[in-house]
Write a structure and sequence with these properties.
The protein is built from nine helices and ten strands. With about 300 residues, the protein is of the alpha/beta class. It has a six-stranded mixed sheet, with helices on both faces. Strands 8-7-9-10 form a four-stranded antiparallel sheet, with no helix packed on it. Helix 3 (about 75-85) links the parallel strand 2 (about 65) and strand 3. Helix 1 crosses helix 2 (about 40-55). The longest helix is centred in the N-terminal third of the chain and has 19 residues, at about 10-30.
Length: about 300
């Protein structure tokens, strides 16, 4: 009798297998899903998982990014390049389009467009008739996201009710919806920031350059480093410093701050991430310096 060798799976193997299972459940249960791809590290991991789930065939869904018009060029350039390399369809819809239609009205020219992405997302869902949006949100990011299910139900108005979600026992997921309703699926919901970086290292995934240490002009405000850009210029009285920084998360320029760091390789970033005591969004998102209730309200209105 031959001796069977027991294969020991790492925690990344388990997380990967769960995420692939979820992606296939979305593809199998939903008629017209879409994968949200911003060019950020979490969605880059989603693309690799989708490759493992569906290659050598094409993805059973397009990619889509809701662009505020104020995203870092390094990230949007990477987004376009990666989609082209994969040969997958990329849909881009901009908050600026919603502003032109009058469905988004800023309180003032300098207001962050980040929270208005939910309007553009709901308009894109209606435009294309998507019944599921696959996103890279993780439960460790902040408390409101920790309340999400793997398959998070949205009603016909695109709203989320955390008290009215479906049970997910024994890894059984219910993605069924009526016309006009929507599912937000989160395949890496059980991953942490450290898991993401370990997966990036294992899979040798390419990333936008701003994730690695580089010198950038910044202004210190409220304990954060506000980058000095055309969108966020220095104001009278601001002290501009050239600081060695990297980004832990990327998004709208007006609300995404870098952190001081000399980590210019994935290995160094892993070491930093393993020892940090501040959450990713708490350290870098200027619009998240608000209460849990405020973020939850934004999610109820359709925010990612």
């Amino acid at each position: 009798m031959s001796t069977l060798t027991k294969q020991t799976l790492s925690h990344l193997d388990w997380l990967e297998a769960e995420a692939i299972h979820i992606l296939r459940e979305v593809a199998g249960q939903c008629a017209n899903p879409v994968l949200l791809f911003s060019g950020g590290k979490d969605s880059i991991c989603l693309l690799r998982l989708a490759e493992k789930a569906f290659r050598p065939g094409r993805f059973p869904f397009p990619l889509m990014h809701i662009d505020t018009g104020h995203n870092y060029k390094e990230v949007t350039d990477f987004r376009d390049k990666r989609a082209a390399e994969l040969g997958e369809r990329l849909i881009v819809r901009s908050v600026e389009d919603s502003m032109a239609r009058g469905t988004v009205v800023l309180k003032h020219a300098g207001e962050s467009r980040n929270k208005h992405q939910s309007v553009t997302l709901l308009e894109a869902i209606e435009e294309f008739g998507f019944d599921a949006c696959i996103g890279g949100a993780r439960r460790d990011e902040e408390k409101a996201r920790a309340k999400e299910r793997i398959m998070s139900f949205r009603d016909e108005f695109g709203q989320w009710d955390p008290k009215n979600q479906r049970p997910e026992l024994w890894n059984l997921y219910n993605a069924r919806s009526h016309k006009g309703e929507n599912i937000r699926a989160f395949p890496i919901s059980n991953w942490t920031e450290l898991d993401v970086w370990q997966y990036i290292a294992r899979e040798q995934l390419e990333l936008p350059s701003i994730y690695f240490a580089h010198v950038r002009p910044v202004v210190r405000k409220s304990g954060l480093l506000q980058p000095v850009t055309d969108v966020t210029p220095a104001r009278d009285g601001d002290v501009v410093e050239d600081v060695l920084v990297r980004f832990r998360t990327v998004g709208d320029i007006t609300c995404t701050a870098p952190v001081e760091s000399d980590a210019d390789t994935v290995e160094k970033i892993l070491a930093e991430t393993a020892t940090t005591t501040i959450t990713e969004r708490g350290a870098t998102r200027m619009d998240d310096q608000t209460s849990e209730a405020s973020m939850e309200q934004r999610k109820k209105e359709g925010y990612f």
